[in-house]
Amino acid sequence: MRINWPVPDPELPAGVHPALADAARAASAAYGRARQLHTRLELREEVADGADGTPTMRVDRIVEDAILDSIHRNKVNLLSEEAGFVDNGSALTLVIDPVDGSANAAFGVPLSCFAGAVVEDGKPTEALTTWFDTGRAWWARTGEPTPFRTTGRTTLDGAAVCLMRPKRGTEEAWARVASRADRIRVLCTTCLETMLVAEGTVDAFADVGSDTHRIMDLATAIVTVPAAGGVLVDLNGRPFDFEPDLSRRWSGVAAATPQLAEELIATVLRP
Amino acid sequence: MRINWPVPDPELPAGVHPALADAARAASAAYGRARQLHTRLELREEVADGADGTPTMRVDRIVEDAILDSIHRNKVNLLSEEAGFVDNGSALTLVIDPVDGSANAAFGVPLSCFAGAVVEDGKPTEALTTWFDTGRAWWARTGEPTPFRTTGRTTLDGAAVCLMRPKRGTEEAWARVASRADRIRVLCTTCLETMLVAEGTVDAFADVGSDTHRIMDLATAIVTVPAAGGVLVDLNGRPFDFEPDLSRRWSGVAAATPQLAEELIATVLRP
């Protein structure tokens, strides 16, 4: 069975870097075509292993192929989870998660997005996240405030927290956070969930220690959450970097304030 | 801070009962206005206790007021969680959850919906669910097949399951289901999650025993999930009825097949 809902063009704000905007548009168009052409079963079929060592679903492949065309057109480099590093001799690298929430995208759960950051000299300068099912976009430049703001909450008691689903070995930490927070959601799309933190819809998002995140899962949050007044850190305090080493993993924690991030991390690490 | 995203008109299929269609349109329009006029904090403020004994948030009140206007215009009766039973002397009663996923709606998590069923002589004849943030609609008539189908999955191993967040006393049952299923999501909107079961996006949805559901939380699923080939049952086998007794509660389980519902229930009830 096909997913019978349209994928609109993303609603991009003025000022987005043209190469990043083109990649985002290409991603929405490709995912929309993929839904029309393929059943859910076909979209989630594993067609290869990505450069990061995890399996690539057909939906990932289709969208990444469209992004590859886009970056060649725009003569910029790419770092992405399936293709790895693609060198077009540019000073700019787009660090992109073509389909964040791949399983959602393949099954039809309407929570998946394109996420991309522009990186120059190892530093991200701007980031764009576009939600496929609605065209909503969140854009931020490093060091410049965004029109949207985090909630400003400082305490875990009473907080609304998005978590990754409990994974083997992290069940107890997961349960500790769930029992402290007021509301827990599991949406299975890190890039969208961190944008919900940035826009003040939820107070925090966390991987409670499964070390699932690659740099492209967190690149947009690294720019956008601080620009909106929040923080984005690794659970174990490891610094983020944009090296094209896809074996590196983090447990990302996005929070409305540094105090909330600290309390969340303490709850995970210290029973 | 306000929720700065629009609420489109619902995209209603031809054939929806005019009173139900009018209520759905009124709900989207009212929620859209509420987002423009009120901050998140104001939307979630508890302004009263509903007829069912749970607190009413401002967002619930605003949308239900618009629905009350609609049912008076259309001279039908209403059964809803805040107002209770409103008798307009009609043979038809609309059983409505004005805002399913009230917390999502108030905070801005884009997962909330209108859900309404037409009930005649105690039997539901049709049901409509409309997702506020996109206008997507799911409609079904009792006993008539829908264009969308469940996944047909029969086993919990490998399944994608939506759960209510773990509540006090149900944590162990929750963890048992989470450890068996392949993917777990917590979207906090029963009516949308059961439509994802009906359209074949996820395999099942369950309240693992917290007895949270009132009849208006399940009314649309009672019609729509079976019409799409699945089942909608109570965890403890209690029959559903449409009596205006809002003290009654169920633990709804929606599944792609009877076999999957049975296995899910067995996993919850028998450690």
Describe this protein's structure.
2 copies of one chain form a homodimer. With about 270 residues, the first copy, chain A, is of the alpha+beta class. Chain A has 2 domains: about 120 residues, Fructose-1,6-Bisphosphatase, subunit A, domain 1 (Fructose-1,6-Bisphosphatase, Chain A, domain 1); about 110 residues, D-Maltodextrin-Binding Protein, domain 2. In chain A, about 35% of the residues lie in helices and about 25% in strands. The first copy, chain A, has a 6-stranded mixed β-sheet, with helices on both faces. In chain A, a hairpin with a 3-residue loop joins strand 3 and strand 4. The radius of gyration of chain A is 17 Å and the shape is globular. At the A-B interface, helix 5 and strand 10 of A face helix 5 and strand 10 of B. Chains A, B: Keywords: Magnesium, Metal-binding. Chains A, B: InterPro entries: Inositol_monophosphatase-like. Chains A, B: This is Inositol monophosphatase. Chains A, B: One of its GO terms (molecular function) is inositol monophosphate 1-phosphatase activity. Chains A, B: Its cofactor is Mg(2+).
Keywords:
homodimer, metal-binding (chains A, B), D-Maltodextrin-Binding Protein, domain 2, six-stranded mixed beta sheet, five-stranded mixed beta sheet, 2 domains, Fructose-1,6-Bisphosphatase, Chain A, domain 1, globular, alpha+beta, 34% helix, 23% strand, 13 strands, 8 helices, 271 residues, metal ion binding (chains A, B)
How large, in whole angstroms, is the Cα Rg of chain A? 17 Å
Oligomer: homodimer
Number of domains of chain A: 2
Largest sheet features of chain A: 6 strands, mixed
The largest contact between protein chains, plus residue counts on each side, is: A-B, 34 and 34 residues
Q: Give the % helix of chain A.
A: 25-40%
Low-confidence segments of chain A: none
- CATH architectural label of the largest domain in chain A: 2-Layer Sandwich
Tally of strands of chain A: 13
